[in-house]
Specification:
23% strand, globular, Rossmann fold, 364 residues, 11 helices, 2 domains, six-stranded mixed beta sheet, four-stranded parallel beta sheet, alpha/beta
Length: 364
């Protein structure tokens, strides 16, 4: 039996036994709540590569339901990211009268959702699709996309650069690890920087150890005002001294270690980034309202735990009051206007490494 925190998931959940599974549809024997409005949670298979991510998200949904779940019943469906399997699930959801579906969790799953051409059950996908496809009615997207954070970083960094060097176009360059995630991050940052009127000098990409030698020469002359790092925290720590003292260094939550007492990276002090309140604002009212994630959760699992909390809160809001809304979430300030975009807009918290940890700079 697949388990979380050492206990079978069905033992942690409330409610009775699930109905027998239909062909092609598996379940994790989890039902949260009894009676009420039925909501489906679509999670990747427990024996696949996303099992840990799935367990963290489920734990967050469970935390959200424990506090705010009155009148809602959540049933977990295990489904791969193939369109044909999703079609089987949605046929059952429609037949059984589900009011909403949360998921899929993966980018491939979100893409497969659009390939269906439409769904009968309102759906909040928890990732963005790989491809730019038309979005049918009743589908919205909410997630932790690095592209959104990169655009926010570009806006913050541009304003800071204009203040420091008025009268000329601010210059920016990027250093990135060789990964699809880093590439998406840099592309979004560069596009947002240019849209504001900045000069984007290009990208230094590395496949092995971070390029600590001759990096300033590779970043061009005159030196950039801003260097954007698209990489993890350990890589950023190795690279940070090579950037030099003159450029402002920025990153996204990719380079965040969260707020943990077990690890500190003082080499990153002064680097700015954006991060979710869950990681950098322990006194945030929403953050204090929910239990902390299990101690064994790493930074990425912590983020998915927070996503699960806010995904449940967003779903509840969408069911209660159709139309535009704003929510002060544990993942950021959330805004949704279905007339403008199918995406939940998430604004993260401006933060800076101080004393080896990222801390919030915004004053609420």
């Amino acid at each position: 039996m697949w388990s979380l925190w050492g206990a079978p998931l069905w033992a942690l959940a409330q409610g009775g036994a699930n109905p027998p599974p239909d062909p092609g549809v598996e379940r994790r024997r989890v039902i949260l709540g009894q009676g009420g409005i039925p909501v489906a949670l679509l999670l990747p298979p427990q024996d696949g590569p996303f099992a840990r991510a799935s367990s963290a998200l489920l734990a967050g949904v469970m935390a959200g339901h424990a506090r705010d779940g009155e009148g809602l019943q959540v049933e977990v469906f295990e489904v791969d990211h193939q369109a044909d399997q999703l079609a089987v699930v949605y046929a059952e959801l429609q037949e059984r009268g589900f009011a909403m579906a949360l998921g899929p969790l993966t980018r491939n799953g979100a893409s497969a959702l659009l390939e269906l051409g439409g769904v009968a059950v309102p759906t909040l996908a928890l990732n963005l699709p790989e491809r730019d496809l038309p979005v049918p009615p009743r589908i919205a997207f909410f997630g932790l996309a690095t592209e959104s954070e990169s655009r926010q970083v570009a806006r913050h960094a541009f304003v800071q650069s204009v203040r420091r060097s008025p009268g000329r176009r601010p210059r920016a360059a990027a250093v990135m690890s060789a990964s699809p995630l880093a590439r998406r991050s840099v592309q979004a940052f560069g596009e947002a920087w240019v849209e504001q009127g900045g000069d984007f000098r290009g990208v230094v990409e590395f496949t092995g150890p971070p390029p600590s030698r001759d990096l300033q020469a590779r970043l061009g002359t005159p030196a950039p005002d801003v260097v954007f790092l698209a990489m993890g925290a350990e890589q950023a720590r190795a690279l940070r001294p090579a950037v030099g003292p003159d450029a402002a260094v920025w990153s996204t939550s990719l380079a965040s270690i969260g707020n943990t007492a077990q690890l500190r990276l003082p080499e990153l002090d002064g680097m700015r980034l954006v991060e979710m309140p869950w990681q950098v604002e322990p006194d945030h009212p929403a953050v204090m309202s929910y239990p902390r994630a299990p101690a064994g959760f790493n930074v990425e699992m912590q983020r998915l735990y927070a996503l699960g909390i806010d995904a449940f809160r967003v779903a509840r809001q969408m069911l209660a009051v159709p139309g535009p809304f704003q929510l002060d979430g544990v993942t950021g300030r959330l805004r949704f206007d279905p007339a403008q975009s199918p995406r939940i807009e998430r604004t993260a918290v401006l933060s800076e490494y101080r004393g080896g940890l990222p801390v919030a700079l915004q004053i609420r």
